[in-house]
Amino acid sequence: MDKCKIRELWFQVNTLRRAALRPYFQEIGLTVGQGQPRILNSLRKYGTMTQRELADCCFVDVTRISRTVDRLVAAGLLSKQIDPECRRSCLISLTEEGRKKAVQVQHIFEKGDEIWWKSFDEEELERLYQYLLKMEQSLKGDQGK
């Protein structure tokens, strides 16, 4: 199998997935490329966390998360407070408006799931999941080399 074809198809599928969701997120005032939906969804699922924990949870670097968090704070969706256990660290949490927006984000992600997984049966989804775990382990094991 030509691995280049797989890589190109992977890129195309991811681009199509993002393009399919973008209008829904824009409709509720969020920017997809900055990771705003993922940040809101992560805080909805896991609750208040430090900026470092949020960056790790969202798989983005701390600098990028910092700028996006600042935008979401300015929009009234997040609050940022000094961590009482470490004054150099901030705790990030959803505001009431942010919680409402995060629920909308969850519904959009669920709508996306319905679209792109509809042609897979449970066995195929399980196999795909196992393949992706295998790929993740390969990538994690190869970091820094």
Contiguous low-pLDDT stretches (5 residues minimum) are: none
SS-derived structural category: mainly alpha
Strand percentage lies at 5-15%
Helix fraction bin: 55-70%
Distance between the termini: 26 Å
Principal-axes geometry comes out as globular
Query: What's the total count of β strands?
Result: 3
- Mean pLDDT, to the nearest integer, reads 92
CATH architecture: Orthogonal Bundle
Question: Main β-sheet, in a few words?
Answer: 3 strands, antiparallel
Number of helices: 6
Radius of gyration: 17 Å
CATH class membership = Mainly Alpha
Give the topology string: H per helix, E per strand.
Answer: HHEHHEEHH
Strand order of the largest sheet: 1-3-2
CATH superfamily: Winged helix-like DNA-binding domain superfamily/Winged helix DNA-binding domain
For this structure, the CATH topology is Arc Repressor Mutant, subunit A
Number of domains as seen in the coordinates? 1
GO molecular function, one term: DNA-binding transcription factor activity
InterPro entries: HTH_MarR-typ, MarR/SlyA-like, WH-like_DNA-bd_sf, WH_DNA-bd_sf
Domain HTH marR-type: 1-137
Protein name: MarR family transcriptional regulator
